[in-house]
Structure formats: structure tokens, C-alpha cells
Amino acid sequence: MAHRDDVTKVAAVCDHCEAVYAARQWPNGTIRVIGRTRCRCGSESFTALGETGDTGAAGSGAE
Fold first, then answer.
1. What's this model's pTM, rounded to 2 decimal places?
2. Is the pLDDT of residue 59 over 50?
């Protein structure tokens, strides 16, 4: 069992409908949304934002 310090809070995006949730990421890579068992679309597959290589407007130098 993971220690509380090993769990990281992340923003996670649903791999199916792209809804974004607050989530916890476990040391083994498992992501679980906070307060729900799955996405509103029924999916249980999420990716932590920042792991997809996305380069949103923040920090891109776009004005």
C-alpha cells in the first residue's frame, strides 16, 4: 500500500471525452479522480495533464 506522501494530486483529462478533473496519481501510475469513480461519460481512463506533451497557451509566449 502506498504511503500518503507517495500520492500526487494532479489535473487529469478523460481519455475519451477530454473532461478535466482533480485527481490523485499513485506511484504505479494509476490515476483516480477525486470524488467520483469514473468520468461523466462512463470512462475510467485518465491521463495526467502535462504527460501528453501538450503545450497550451500558458508559458508558450503567445500574447
1. 0.69
2. no
